[in-house]
Amino acid sequence: MQAYIGLGSNLDNPMAQLNRAIKTLKKHDRLNAFRVSSIYGSKPVGPQDQPDYINAVASFETDLTPIALLDILQSIEQAQRRVRERHWGPRTLDLDLLLYGSEKIQLPRLTVPHTHMLERGFVIKPLNDLAPKMRLENGKTVTEQLHQLDTSDLVLIKEE
């Protein structure tokens, strides 16, 4: 199954946090054909009294179930001492399962496609790097969705 995850950080050397997470994900033997978008800087969603974020999207093929994949993502967050002080607050590492093939998942621990992803330029812009022609749940391509969003606060930090 083709999966897409969002990566984000704004605490404790965010670039090192993302690079460490990407390196860990690339080494996992059940995640294949791993690709990562460019890395973008953005203003935080929610409380503005926190540092700006850096974000990327990664894609890979996997035979893991969505919950098994979520468990791996959360274990990586914990290994990197994830800090989450408040809702939409600063964090050392955030790994979100955005898409799992075309599946729609509604479980207590997991909602896929990820809630609010269509509204978030910091998700759609890096997703556009990887899959511009992919159709989203609203019927638009990623590129078409990107054109609907204000991405003026996004800054290219690093091209992969």
UniProtKB/TrEMBL annotation:
Entry keywords, A to Z: ATP-binding, Folate biosynthesis, Kinase, Nucleotide-binding, Transferase
Q: In which pathway does it act?
A: Cofactor biosynthesis; tetrahydrofolate biosynthesis; 2-amino-4-hydroxy-6-hydroxymethyl-7,8-dihydropteridine diphosphate from 7,8-dihydroneopterin triphosphate: step 4/4
| Claim: Ligase is one of the keywords in the record | no
Q: EC number(s) for this protein?
A: 2.7.6.3
Q: Which residues form the 7,8-dihydro-6-hydroxymethylpterin-pyrophosphokinase domain?
A: 87-98
UniProt-listed PROSITE patterns: HPPK (PS00794)
**How would you classify this enzyme at the top EC level?**
transferase
The domain of life is: Bacteria
GO MF annotations in UniProt? 2-amino-4-hydroxy-6-hydroxymethyldihydropteridine diphosphokinase activity
Return the Gene3D superfamilies for the record: 7,8-Dihydro-6-hydroxymethylpterin-pyrophosphokinase HPPK (3.30.70.560)
Quick check: keyword Transferase in the entry?
yes
The UniProt entry's sequence similarity note says: Belongs to the HPPK family.
The record describes the protein's role as:
Catalyzes the transfer of pyrophosphate from adenosine triphosphate (ATP) to 6-hydroxymethyl-7,8-dihydropterin, an enzymatic step in folate biosynthesis pathway.
**PANTHER family on file:** 2-AMINO-4-HYDROXY-6-HYDROXYMETHYLDIHYDROPTERIDINE PYROPHOSPHOKINASE (PTHR43071:SF1)
Protein name, please? 2-amino-4-hydroxy-6-hydroxymethyldihydropteridine pyrophosphokinase
Can you name the source organism? Marinomonas primoryensis
